[in-house]
Amino acid sequence: MSARRRQSSVTTVPHAVTPAVAEVSLSISPLLAELGSKDHAARAKALLELNRQVVAAAKRGLSEESLAEFYQKLKGDVCDMLNRRNKFENLGGIAAMLDLINIERSPFGSDVNLSVFGRNLFNVLPPFGTDFEVVHAACKALGALAAHEMGPSMTQQFVSTHAEKALEWLEHSNARDDLKHHTCVTILEELVLARPSEFTQHIPRVFQCIFLAIKGGKVAVRETGVRVLKQCLLTWRGRSLYPAIYREIEIGFSSRDESCIHGAILAAGAFVAHTGNYIHETTYFETVCDSLVMHLESRSTIVNNALMRMIPELARVHPAVFVTYRVRSNKKYVGQLFMDVSLDHLMRMTGRDKHRMCAFLAFGDVAVLLPEHTHGRLGSVVNELCAVLSRKAKMYSEELVGACYLATAKLVEAFGEDFTAHATRLLPMLFERPATAAPLSATLVTALQAIARHTPALRASVQRRLLDVLSLTLQGRRYRHPGLVAHRTRAARQESLASVASDGSGSDGHAASGVSGVSGADGASGAVAVLPAASGSTYFYRTAPQGPGSAGG
After folding, report:
1. How many other β-carbons are positioned within 10 Å of the β-carbon of residue 281?
2. Going by fewer Cβ within 10 Å, which terminus of the chain is more open, N or C?
3. What's the predicted TM-score (pTM) here?
4. Which residues neighbour 550 within 8 Å (Cβ) at sequence distance 6 or greater?
């Protein structure tokens, strides 16, 4: 055990307790041991019981001194769990700490105790902690501590202490030290989200070193680093730092390393979306378009997918330039409209399994923004959607099928009634190819809602099919309207139709409208409505019989 760990253990754990506190702690000790269990469910159950026991301890009539001593011992026990080298004890200690600070009228949420908990969390962070799950939980816990109510001076001190530590680690870390990079960017993200005002003074330093993580080795680290960049751009409105940020993005675009290019695309998306009017007043937008075109032929899956996600963002931020700008890079596309180049690329990617999901969603987003410029490519996209959703198609992943449902919803929203013919073609496939083992998924419901809302001609068909699916799920049979009797065999159906025809020959004209008069067993005449069913059967609905004194008697 390191010197730092030994010191923390000695300073946070009391050496002796009074008999009253020992009696109360006797019920707590087994729960703390259970918090170190490998079983997640057992830890969750112990956490709930610990909360109950701590709340009950305040009502047991202990003196103020004994109660304060109990709280102090419990805090020491929780901090001690963070000083051990057992992964599950660390996770249990973090969970207990977060639970204790939210107990009302307890001292665990005081400024002093929050600071103590924050210092002890560093015992499970690099270089002491090496488990990714524990490190990630500790970083999230720091954000929760920062968001907790504290005094103004204490809040500023807490944020500054942990932000400066994270930035120092990031500046002096190795290029491929993914765990330390993940720790730094996660802490920074949690702090800027929890306390943006207090974090503002650290933003210039963040801009200087965040690209060390954005160009890092793991995708998760790059994505977290870009989220930090995004939040800092939203908080900081000083334009003087924008050119330096874009220079780092250009360096990434000019690299041959896949991770650098991917990070540059992600950072460019945040830069374009969150620099306000600055992107309209400069030529950075056009430069980003040219940089993306340079990497259209990339063989990297993550680069291609990031590039496709970037296309609708460009269309949203500056639609006029997106439509009219002509490419100046990549000899293959020089002079062509950037919109045509990017949409043609999306069309090509819809036919490739690795890129279909992103391509469908990106095209749907662009269609919602620029329906008049994407209408000509609509037929080809629908053909690719049918290729995935068709019953004869191979089994694709749930994510891809769900993306097809979402893309359908976007296309219906974009083109409205003009999409009716395509929706008619797609509708049977939506029910034949559920995205999960369940008949209905959230993405399928989204697609059906869009079709029913934007194509009124298909609303009844959607409702009828949906009722059938719900009935099949709940009852194991297709939907029947209450009071309808289904004649499912051919012989029964023909016999019933013949009976209706003969009985209706002398009726009062109901047969002409599809309703025929019949006689019941008691001689009272009634009416039978002949209704087609969704399953191909014919339903006969008998109305109330008419007595001798009725109008039709």
Report:
1. 11
2. C
3. 0.80
4. none
